[in-house]
Amino acid sequence: MAASDSMLRLEGKVAIITGAASGLGEATARLFAAHGARVVIADVQDELGKAVAASIGLQTCSYKHCDITDEKQVEETVGFTVEKYGSLDIMHCNAGVIGPVEGVMDLDLNKLDRTLAVHVRGTVAAVKHAAHAMRARGTHGSIICMASVAARQGSVAPVAYTVAKHAVIGIMRGAVEELGAHGIRINCISPYYVATPLLFSLNGLTPGEVEARSCEMATLKGVVIRAGNVAQAALFLASDESEYISGHDLVIDGGRTVAMTSSLMAN
């Protein structure tokens, strides 16, 4: 849904969103574009990514093949964006994989390495090259990293995914002072269970079944968490409305992790 001209919160800004060919990234790309941003979808799902970019509108959205585990491809994607649109204001490090579902005693370390390569190496590469581009052009940019409630509470996700998301928050916290010296903000978003293709691949459930389970476990009743809720959080962190927010992990879980911690302490 397009925003009115008076409500364009990203007008004139340029954003890269990794993993934006589907799921949370796609929802965010559509919302950013609706608010006036020019968006580069960086993904490995070429057909999906090109289709999403075309449906948003090729005047405001482009697709660039990018495997974020390959630093050279990340660097090239940043260069492509700056050359095409003249700047880079927002880097949303959204790409991710579920990874192996085995517990730690049965974990294949090669699969763990792959999971860490996507979430950790990929996030570092995106932060690194986005920050260089922003600093070179004097952009007071915003970098957003996709973490998870799994980084706050055990038994929410498989161990490899949990380890990776803890590391993503570590990247944000470790970079906040260095980037802040150049006027660049960096924050995380940590959502609860959202019905996306990534989650379907883990348990084979339909969107309705995922939403039903999420509602069943939710603390905040009467609201269903959807991709749009996460996209709205990214919009806030990308916009000038959050111009003095950096080093923050914005949790979107309806109070679930806080309530569970309180319950444990009460017992």
From TrEMBL:
Family of this protein: Belongs to the short-chain dehydrogenases/reductases (SDR) family.
InterPro entries in the record: NAD(P)-bd_dom_sf, SDR_fam
Q: What is the lineage of its organism?
A: Eukaryota, Viridiplantae, Streptophyta, Embryophyta, Tracheophyta
Q: Which SUPFAM superfamilies match?
A: NAD(P)-binding Rossmann-fold domains
Look up and give the organism this protein is from: Dioscorea zingiberensis
* Protein name, as recorded: Uncharacterized protein
Q: What PANTHER family does the record point to?
A: SHORT-CHAIN DEHYDROGENASE REDUCTASE, SHORT-CHAIN DEHYDROGENASE REDUCTASE 3B
Tell me, what's a Pfam family for it?
adh_short_C2
